[in-house]
Structure formats: C-alpha cells, structure tokens
Specification:
heterodimer; A: 112 residues; mainly beta; Immunoglobulin-like; seven-stranded mixed beta sheet; four-stranded antiparallel beta sheet; 11 strands; B: 114 residues; six-stranded mixed beta sheet; 0% helix; 59% strand; globular
Chain lengths: 112, 114
C-alpha cells in the first residue's frame, strides 16, 4: 500500500484564521479523500480530491470553507478557512489506488 | 440517517479467544466493504475488505463474512492477541449520484484482556 505523509500533525489556531493541511503520497493513487473526525463520532467524508479539477464535496461541506487542491496524483491540500471552535477536529486524508486504502496520520486541529 | 451501523461501542475479549465485530448497513447499493483498525493518535489502517459478490474473505487471523440478505457483515479475529486492542471501523462504498462515496460506521473499541 502507498504511504501518506500528512502535516502538520497538530496545530492550535486562532479563531478567524485559516490552516492548510498537506498530504504527500509516495506513489500514485487513483483517488484521494479528505475526512473529519469529531470527538465521539465516526469519520465523515468532506470531499473527494480530483486531480486538476474542483473537488467533489459532500453534503454540508462547501468549497469556500474547505478549499482543496490536487495538482497531481501524489499531493493534495485541504484548507480550513475562517476557523471557529466548531472546526476543532481531527482531519484525515486518505487514498486508494491498488489494494485497499491508506490514510495519513491525521491533523489534530484546535481552534481557540 | 446512519447507513452503516456498528451497534457495539466496545467489546472485551480474552486473549486467545475469538473476537467478533459486527456491522450492519441499510443501502443495497454498497458494493465493497472494508474494515479498518485505528490506534490512538494514529490514522486508520486498512485491514481487510470484501466485495459484495463474495460472502467470505480470509487473511491470516482475520476473516470477514458478508450476509447480503441481512445487510450484515462481521469481522472475526482468531486467536485474539493483545496487539489487536484498537478501534475497528467498518466502511462501505458505492458509486452513487456520479460520486464515489465511502460511508463509515462509528467504530467498535476492542479490548483484549490478558
């Protein structure tokens, strides 16, 4: 399986600021995804990152709040914009290309 | 509306015995099912999967069973080992409305007792 490096691993951010999370894959993956896991809840898919085009967002998530880039098959970024305390969560990127899925190690975001 | 349900938030099993983790789903369009294992402070790691055209898939100590008529799948771990203590997520996937979707259960925390 591919290995995904995700950074930052954690951050504490001020309300109203933005944070960009990066995921770098060591090999090409067909599909990349961004998830959010809030405390006590299951993973929630935010969007599918499409190479060279706009991401496909799930219901309840919009591009203005969570802009995503995927310039090639091995790299993607998620920006959490204009943050509020409700955005405090773990954010995960994931990818699939061969057998099974691989996930990054997650970014623990705290908004104060 | 939870399409993938893991009704047991936690499960405690004696080391060496069989661990059985259950997952129910409601959407008949799901065509691929996956189990993930997650340790604290780490991302989930892929464990085993099964296509909807099969009813069993085995990989070492891990076996996944799929009962499509009951919309139920289970993960069997035998024998259970202390390193198996983790949270286990089941997930189901399908192409719906021209989008690839992956729906997750809430997870079951497995505790292996020595």
């Amino acid at each position: 399986s591919a290995v995904i490096s995700q950074k930052p691993s954690r951050d504490i951010c001020q309300r109203g600021t933005s944070l960009t999370i990066q995921c770098q894959v060591d090999s090409q993956v067909t599909m990349m995804f961004w998830y959010r896991q809030q405390p006590g809840q299951s993973l929630t898919l935010i969007a599918t990152a499409n190479q060279g085009s706009e991401a496909t967002y799930e219901s309840g998530f919009v591009i203005d709040k969570f802009p995503i880039s995927r310039p090639n098959l091995t790299f993607s970024t998620l920006t959490v914009s204009n943050m509020s305390p409700e955005d405090s969560s773990i954010y995960l990127c994931g990818g699939t290309g061969g057998s099974g899925y691989t996930f990054g190690s997650g970014t623990r975001l705290t908004v104060v | 509306d939870q399409q993938v349900k893991q009704n047991s938030p936690s499960l405690s099993v004696q080391e060496g015995r069989i661990s059985i983790l259950n997952c129910d789903y409601t959407n008949s369009m799901f065509d691929y099912f996956l189990w993930y294992k997650k340790y604290p402070a780490e991302g989930p790691t892929f464990l085993i999967s099964i296509s909807s055209i099969k009813d069993k898939n085995e990989d070492g100590r891990f076996t996944v069973f799929l009962n499509k008529s009951a919309k139920h799948l289970s993960l069997h771990i035998v024998p259970s080992q202390p390193g198996d203590s983790a949270v286990y997520f089941c997930a189901a996937s399908a192409f719906m409305d021209s989008n690839y979707q992956l729906i997750w259960g809430a997870g079951t925390k497995l505790i292996i007792k020595p």
